[in-house]
Design a protein that fits this description.
With 108 residues, this protein is of the alpha/beta class. The protein is elongated, with a radius of gyration of 23 Å.
Amino acid sequence: MKRRAFIALIGGAAVAWPRAARAQQTDRVRRIGLFMNLAADDPEGQARNTAFVQALQQLGWTEGRNARIDTRWGTDAGSTRKYAAELVALAPTSSWPLRAQRRARCNR
């Protein structure tokens, strides 16, 4: 009788193991590439970056737990090309170009 209980235990573990392995795969870290066309110290860029991270958190993504956010900042054509290529080379799961819209000021 002990042999049958042991075999049942091993069989049950073998059936449950693939399910547990699949459940753990959903917790892998996703790499997100974020490109901002502002300087890293620009207040508007920082606000947009913060809003992006907060929106991800509301959707259940937490940096360091299930997401890694690689942010690059570029203000001119040279740095834009350089940092865009750098982000592509990192092979992110998802890429997000966040552009700042410059508004023309009119003096009336």
